[in-house]
Amino acid sequence: MVKITDSVSWVGKIDWELRKFHGDEYSTHRGSSYNAYLVRDTKTVLIDTVWKPFAEEFLDRLSRFIDLSEIDGIVANHGEIDHSGALPALMERIPNTPIYCTANGVKSLTGHYHKDWNFQIVKTGDKLKLGKKELIFIEAPMLHWPDSMMCYLTGDNILFSNDAFGQHYASEFLFNDRVDQNELFTEALKYYANILTPFSPLVAKKIEEVLSFNLPVSMICPSHGVIWRENPSQIVEKYLEWAKDYQEDRITIVYDTMWEGTRQLAEAIAEGVRETAPQTEVKLYNLSKTDKNDVIAEVFRSKGILAGSPTINRGILTSIAAFFEEVKGLGMKKKKAASFGCYGWSGESVKILNDQLRASGFEVVHEGFKSLWEPDDKILDRARQYGKEVVKQLI
User: 60 and 129: one domain?
Assistant: First the structure.
């Protein structure tokens, strides 16, 4: 337990070993945390729990600080099991305790656990009086599940923001001002790019709605990562920036290669880009060797991308195909793209890449560059020229 204020304590779990999240879909190089909060006033409320593998550990530690029967209510901001995994074990000990959640939260929690608990449905603006202070509930559907909500604690002026403003980031320091700022914002952007990008219009709208309440915010307590206590508005400002079709002056080149030909094309194209636009940052990633979530974060930051693959069995390499399957669901907007690749026989890869790019929301600015067999010096010179020409359209 870590005291946040006189009435609020962090009672969550730091998961130093976590390396994959959402199954194997999201990489967590720096671990994560499952943040739960205990609020004590005349009434005592627990906000969220932890992931199921840590349920017994969570309850054992919580029991050292409070008799579980003294918990008057549980707030379930989100039903996903990294937040609610300890609920079944907790409810076995305090079975009649009310659980405050949205209507969709009831569906989510009963769908996961098939229990008829004492659900109390709340909507935006509903209040739970705790004594001198109260919790104000704010529905946040599709940030990032239909059941998601936030809650605000008066007096302490804390926004418990659920998945918004979080990071998959384990640290012995609980607060944003205590951690490495480069690490923190790298993980915060990666989290946004990979999880919240599809809901960017809703992010901006919800933030504007919360700001319209004119509630003072001294701290933002998310469900993962560190608490924003120093200048908490900085992450709100970043979310508003990221939600508006974010891009920096950079080009990302993503590719896979069989016999190094497509890699050589990628590097030659990058040289052409650098010669023409030296102020534009260019990064190359072989998708069979690089973490896809890190690459998605780079694409999120970019004005445009170049995608490359050789042709195999009249298709593209599986690392590229899988990458676009994920990118397609993120719905990035206002980014431009082009393609390239080697081939030995039929040469369909460039057309397939263009189709994938368009289906993923990119504006394809060129029909692409193809090389028959392994590129020689003449082909590599043409690839450099392609890079020089296409970058003018990408930026």
Answer: yes
